[in-house]
Amino acid sequence: MIDAFTIQISFLIYEAVFCLIAAACYAVSSDKIKIRKKIVVSLNVACSLMLICEYSFYAFKGSTTPLDVAIMYIVNAAVYYLIILLMVFYAMLISVRLFERFDLKKDMPCRKRLIAVCAIAAIGMILITVSQFNGIYYYFDENNVYQRGPLFMVASIIPMLGTFLVASMVIQFREKMSFGQQFVLISYLIFPLAGGIFQVLFYGNSLLNICIGISVLLMFFENVINKEKEVIKASKTEVRTGLANEHGYIEWLNAMKGNKDLMDYAVVFFDLRKFSDINRNYGIENGNRVLAAFSVKMLKYIKKDEILGRQFGNQFVAIVRKSNLDSLLKVLKGVDVVFTDIITKQETRVNLSARAGIYMIDRTDLEGEDILVFAGQALNAAKSTKNDDVVWLTQELMDSIAEKKKLESEIGFGLNNNEFKPFYQPKVNSMTGRMCGAEALSRWYHNGEILAPGRYIPIMEPTDNICKLDFAILKATCEDISRWLKEGMNVPQISVNISRRNLDDPNIAKNIDEVVTKAGIPKDLIEIEVTENNDEAAISLLKNFVDSLHDLGYKVSIDDFGSASSSLMLLREINFDTLKIDKGFVDLANQRDLAILTHIARIGKDLKVDIVAEGVERNDQIKTLDNLGINVIQGYYFDKPLSHEDMTDRLKNPVYEI
Ligand code: C2E
Ligand code: CA
Ligand code: CA
Question: Which residue puts its alpha carbon closest to atom 43 of ligand 1?
């Protein structure tokens, strides 16, 4: 017959063996947090020892041989010591689980409680030792039978107290873990407490220690599962900021695929403005600190069921509820971030703002990658517009992106098949009303349509296609001039736009000259227009280019003068022949424009540089310009850019009414 007692002591030994096996398994497993590994193994070994001692206690109970008496003394004391030790390991485990460390240094969270646990453990150990001599906890009677002493209850209350303090840490920081995890960790308080009460009421059953064993095993399994989750989480986490990485938030989106809740969300793809300035001013290491501090700050605005991730560099992705979007965007307009400078060790404050592209998720069938591509396209649009910091992905934008992609793929073919042709916009001398020059402006004859440069130049500019375009237009212009000359017409000087990207080629001036020479037209009929830009590093290249053109006998004009911050600098360094005033100033929208225009006219005169006013649309502009001594006018007022045929007609009749 198997009686309750046999079941109980068999259970003790089974559990002891399980705990040992658990300890061995964890010992050979990999755990990146070394201290956790040590604690889990120690906890299980200690628990196993405690259960074996408990088992021995029952096995040798009642025998009075000196050896058995000694064993009874030893195993009993061991059980009491080990229970206290288990309480300390429990405190260590919880502390490592919550804060990834266990020490009693000043900055250790819950330090006071941990010190209290250690103090309780010390007192507990002392009392057990004392009890061995005076039997205050327990003693063995003449039959070698265990009897409770007067302070027996204290022996149970002491470890309970410590365990209670530790459990309070779990409760306080419960947000750091799931409900299941909390339950498992708290079970170390609840199970033994219940078992202990039962044992006290029905003396003779070893439930308390069996319950300790059960919760230690539970904690072991919880740790194994948690460790696995950590590995998964690490693969979805970006190291520097602790935010989700691309893998992390794509998976988040994919997990939501098909769920109609997904349509409650908006994806915000944003990049921090002028982050390169921060890296330059403070160094890359500090830049990383800024990113980390920014991430911590931003997480405060991200709710539990939302996600914030870092794409790379200064690019981030936030997937937030549409209802939370406004508050996020408000923060992205400008947020102060404080970091400790790695060199000066001083707290430094920087203000960060972002440009953002937003895709309001409106369907549930998209893959995570596609959703991000949509938001990324909106961000690109935000980056390429000067005015908008935030761009929403609309159907219109999607169409224009699709169109841009299509054109992009067709440009190569267009260039090879001479689809790009020059139109000519006359320059008129407002004193005489006669055409005194023209500018060649490209047009793309594409699928029966004539496309203006605004449609294709932005696509070409980042590539060498822009250089091919410049030469195609130069060549076609030279050929047109040659034809007009052959037809006996009077052809004025025509300017051709040369993009700055050409300057990377040291032979560029020579190549231009070759094209002109080959066409057999006089060099003074071609003028080269270069646009100023803010790229200071290129000034010397530009200067060499202009000097070479001058040496070869060409005139050079600076286009859109005044639109970049380095205008005066360029004028100081480089001998341009003509200065084309940016349309912005010629619009004469306000008094300031007039003031600037007046001074540009003065500078032009003093430096003996010709001035052309571009974008003139109204008669009053001509009058004002006239008063300032600016007489060469290019603009819709006289003519829009004309096709070859229209220009031919214009050349036959080059006089305008003013
Ligand atoms: P840009 O060189 O500043 O050319 C002047 C632009 O202003 C032309 O636009 C012209 O049509 C426009 N414009 C002239 N008068 C008026 C006016 O009274 N009112 C208004 N609103 N606009 C006026 P377009 O032809 O669309 O060319 C745009 C830009 O594309 C050009 O600006 C130039 O930077 C670029 N581009 C055109 N063809 C070429 C080319 O062959 N090579 C390069 N690198 N750039 C080119
Ligand atoms: Ca131009
Ligand atoms: Ca211009």
Answer: 497
**Residue whose CA lies nearest to ligand 1 atom number 16:** 615
- Taking 70 as the threshold, does the pLDDT of residue 454 lie above it? yes
pLDDT tens by residue, 226-255 = 888 887 887 888 888 889 999 999 999 999
Contact in structure between 440 and 423 (CB atoms under 8 Å): yes
Distance 454 CA to ligand 1 centre (A): 8
Closest residue to atom 27 of ligand 1, CA basis: 453
Q: Whose CA is nearest to atom 7 of ligand 1?
A: 615
Q: Any idea what the CATH number is for the domain that residue 600 is in? A: 3.20.20.450
Q: Residue 267's domain is classified under what CATH number?
A: 3.30.70.270
- 557-575 mean pLDDT: 86
Q: What's the total number of domains in the chain?
A: 3
Residues 298, 443, single domain; the answer is: no
Residues 223 and 295 occupy one common structural domain: no
Task: Tell whether the torsion through CA atoms of 391, 395, 397 and 398 is positive or negative.
Answer: positive
Distances in Å between the Cα of 343 and the Cα atoms of 241, 285, 295, 356 are: 20, 10, 21, 32
Give me the CATH number covering residue 94: 1.20.1070
Mutate to test the pocket of ligand 1, among 441, 442, 588 (most ligand atoms within 8 A of CB): 441
Same domain as 229, residue 275: no
402 in any annotated domain: no
557 Cα to the center of ligand 1, angstroms: 14
Q: Whose CA is nearest to atom 24 of ligand 1?
A: 453
Decide which of 207, 234, 261 is a domain's last residue. 234
pTM (global) more than 0.70: no
Nearest protein Cα to ligand 1, atom 3: 560
Please list, residue by residue across 33-60, b when 16 or more beta carbons sit within 10 angstroms of its beta carbon and e when fewer do.
eebbbbbbbbbbbbbbbbbbbbbbbbeb
Average pLDDT in the 161-185 region?
A: 91
What pairing do the DSSP bridges indicate for beta strands 526-531 and 494-498? parallel
Ligand 1 centroid – CA 443 distance (Å): 10
Which residues form the domain of 301?
246-393
Do residue 156 and residue 304 come from a single domain?
Answer: no
* Pair (476, 622) in one structural domain: yes
CA 273 – ligand 3 centroid, Å:
28
Ligand 1 atom with least separation from CA of 636? 18
For the CA of 641, the nearest atom of ligand 1? 11
In terms of domains, do 94 and 72 share one?
A: yes
* Mean pLDDT across 9-38: 90
User: Ligand 1 atom closest to Cα of 443?
Assistant: 38
Question: Looking at ligand 1, which residue's alpha carbon is closest to its atom 6?
Answer: 615
Share of the chain above pLDDT 90, in %: 72
* Any domain includes 404: no
Distance 402 CA to ligand 2 centre (A): 28
Say whether both 119 and 228 belong to one domain. Answer: yes
Final residue of a structural domain among 393, 420, 444: 393
pLDDT in tens, 338-388: 999 988 989 999 999 999 999 999 999 999 999 999 999 999 888 887 777
Q: What local confidence, expressed as pLDDT, does residue 319 receive? A: 97
Does residue 103 lie within any of the structural domains? Answer: yes
Please list every protein residue whose CB sits less than 6 Å from any atom of ligand 1: 425, 441-442, 452-454, 457, 466, 469-470, 473, 497, 499, 559-560, 614-617, 634-636, 641
Same domain, 44 and 185: yes
Q: Which two tokens stand for residue 288?
A: 């990383």
Q: Is the pLDDT reported for residue 30 higher than 90? A: no
Q: How far is the CA of 560 from the centre of ligand 1 (A)?
A: 10
Domain membership flag for residue 239: no
| Short-list 152, 163, 61, 79, CA closest to 121 | 163
The string of pLDDT tens digits covering residues 268-311 is 999 999 999 999 999 999 999 999 999 999 999 999 899 999 99
- For 214, residues 6+ apart whose C-beta sits below 8 A from its C-beta are 15, 187, 191
Written in H, E and C, the secondary structure of 265-333 is EEEEEEEECCHHHHHHHHCHHHHHHHHHHHHHHHHCCCCCCCEEEEEECCEEEEEEEHHHHHHHHHHHH
Whole-number Å distance, alpha carbon 612 to ligand 3 midpoint, is 10
